[in-house]
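User: Hey, my collaborator sent me this sequence without any context and asked if I could get a structure. I don't really work with proteins. Can you help?
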Amino acid sequence: MYNFKIFLILILFFLNGCFEIRQINGLSLNTIQNFEIEIGTSSKKSLIENYGPPSFESVFNKNTIYYVSQSTYYKNFNSPQLTDLIVYQINLDENENVKDFRKFNQEDVKNIEIADDSKSADGEGLRIFLKSIIDNLQKNKLDN
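Assistant: No problem. I've predicted the 3D structure and written it out in structure-token form, which is a compact way to encode the shape of the chain:
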């Protein structure tokens, strides 16, 4: 009987390690896929009312905000696997109305311009930008 209990506990630990865990940071995939923005009509205030605060704001340009949805899978002791990533880069005018926006997916997210001039977009600027993304996603996760 004692051996059976130990065997049962080991089987439960093994089965628990086989489950996949899905973690979503930022907006849900359904929300960001139905993201509605109209140039000149949508404002920062209306975006916040409809989708909550931006995932993060640009460190280099106060008139640029980002909404992000990131889905990650974990299984066993393997490293996390990024499965979905959608980023909206929204540029605002001086009245905080949407001037233009771009949608990036997992393949073309490396094409996001984080600064207007090349001096700010060096390796240090990229490090600060990525740190800002991670910090804001963690902050949003804690707020939820």
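In plain terms: The chain has a mean pLDDT of 78. You can pass these tokens on to your collaborator as they are.
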